[in-house]
Amino acid sequence: MQEKEIKEGIIYNAISGFYYVWADGESYTTKPKGVFRHQSAKPLVGDHVDIEIDAVNLESNDRLVKMHPRKNELVRPPIANVDYVFVVMSLIEPDFSMNLLDTFLAVFEGNKIQPFIILTKYDLLVDSLGEAEAAAKVQAITDLYRENIGYDVVVLNGSKERFDQVKALIQEGVYVVAGQSGVGKSTMINHLIPELNIETAEISSALNRGRHTTRAVTLYPLGKGLLADTPGFSSLELIDIPKEELQYTFPEIAEAARSCKFRSCVHINEPKCHVKASVEAGEIADSRYQNYLNMYQRIESQKPVYDRKS
Ligand SMILES: Nc1nc2c(ncn2[C@@H]2O[C@H](COP(=O)(O)OP(=O)(O)OP(=O)(O)O)[C@@H](O)[C@H]2O)c(=O)[nH]1
Ligand SMILES: [Mg+2]
Ligand SMILES: [Zn+2]
Question: How far apart are CA 228 and CA 176, in angstroms?
Answer without folding.
Answer: 5
